[in-house]
Amino acid sequence: MSPTLAELQALESEHAVGTFVRLPVQFVRGSGVRLWDEHGREYLDFLAGISVLNVGHCHPRVVAALTAQAAELSHVSNLFYTAPAMELSAALAESSLGGKVFLCNSGAEANEAAIKLARRARPGGGIVVLRDGFHGRTYGALSATPQESKQAPFAPLVPGFTAIAKTPEALAEAVTGSTAAVLLEPIQGESGIHPLDDALLIAAREACDRSGAALIFDEIQTGMGRTGTMWAYQQTPVVPDALTSAKALGGGLPIGALVTGPGLADVLQPGDHGSTFAGGLAICAAALAAVEICRDPELLERVHALGERLRHALAELAQVVAVRGRGLMVGIDLAPGLDAPEIVRRALLEQRLVLNATGPSTIRFEPPLIVTEAEIDEAVGRLGTFLG
C-alpha cells in the first residue's frame, strides 16, 4: 500500500532537499495518456513528464524491451561492447545527422558534451547562445542559460559564453573566427514555447559557415517526434552540425545523447569525455524501442494534425490571447489578470488535467504523441471550465 500524500509531504519536509515546488498529488500508475493517483482517481496527462513520455505512459514495447534486458544484464560499463548501446547509437545517427553519438544520462549532460565537442574542435573558442534559452542546470549548461534568476545565485559561471538578442543582425555580429559554437533551441521550450524564425536559423547557419564555428541544436524538448518530424530541424531550412537529445529518448527513463554530423564525428578522442552509467543496457533497450515508435511516419503525420486541432481549439477559448508552437509542443498566453500557475493548479485538482505553467501568464501543453482527437477535445473542454 502506498504511503499517503501527507506522509510523503512529511518525508519531503524532513529528508528531501527543497529544490522542487510540488503540486499536492501522488501519482501511482499510468497508461497511455492517463494517470491515476493513490485514491484511484483518473487524470488526463497533457504534460507527459515535461515532454518525456512521448510514447505515453508504460508503452508495452518499451516495458517489454526494458524488462527483457533487465532480466539478462543491466550494466557492465563502457569498457566493453553491448548491443543496445551500439544499436541505439546507429538508430540515432541514421535518423538525423549521419555522424556519431555520445550517450549520456540527461539533457544537461548532453549539452555539456556538446560544449566540450565545440571547444575541442576550436580550443578556447566562445559559445554564442540566445536570450531566453534554457540548456540545463549543471555549470556549463547553466552558463549557456542566460536567465538571471537561474544564474545569479551560482556565480561565477563558466567563462566564454555570450548571450545575444534573437535577431539575425545580432547573430552575424556575435559570431567571429574565435567562436567555437552557436548553441540554440529551435523552439525555446522553458521560456514558453517560442519557435525561432527561419530567418534567425539561416543567419546562424551562415554565420557558422563563414566563421568555422559549429551550429548545435538543443533538441532535448523538441526531438523524438514532438513537433511532427523526428527532429525539429527537419522542418527548417537549416541542418545543424550537431544536436542534443534527452527527455523522450528513454521512453520515460533517464538518458541523453549528443549526435554529430560527419564533420564533427571524430573530434572527441579516447579519454576526452566519459560517463559511468551512460549506455546502460536496460535503458538503451528501452530507448531503442522509443526511437522506433517515434520514427513511425504514421505517428508523425498524426502529430501534425493533432497539433493543429489542439492549437485551433485553444484559440477558441475566451481567455486565451495567443497560441503558438509546432506539432504537439504548444504554449498559450492568458488574458491580463489571470494567474497561469493558479489555473494549472485548479485544472489539476478540480478537473484532473495535468498541465504546466512556464511563467505567470503562460501554460504549456505537451501530451503524449499517442493522444487521440477525443482526448484533445476532452482536455480543452476541461480547461474551458476556467478559460471558456
Report on the structure:
The structure is a single chain. The protein is an alpha/beta fold and 388 residues long. The chain has two domains: 5-58 and 297-387, Aspartate Aminotransferase, domain 1 (Alpha-Beta Complex), CATH 3.90.1150.10; 73-294, Type I PLP-dependent aspartate aminotransferase-like (Major domain) (Aspartate Aminotransferase, domain 2), CATH 3.40.640.10. Helix content is 37%, strand content 19%. The chain contains 13 helices and 17 strands. The chain has helices at 5-15, 48-51, 60-72, 83-94, 107-121, 139-143, 148-151, 168-174, 198-211, 281-294, 297-315, 340-351, 373-387; strands at residues 27-31, 34-37, 42-45, 101-104, 126-130, 161-164, 179-184, 187-188, 194-195, 214-218, 242-245, 256-260, 320-326, 329-334, 353-354, 356-359, 362-365. α3 (60-72) packs antiparallel against α10, α4 runs parallel beside α10 and α8 packs parallel to α9 (198-211). The longest helix is centred in the last third of the chain and has 19 residues, at 297-315. It starts with a helix and ends with a helix.
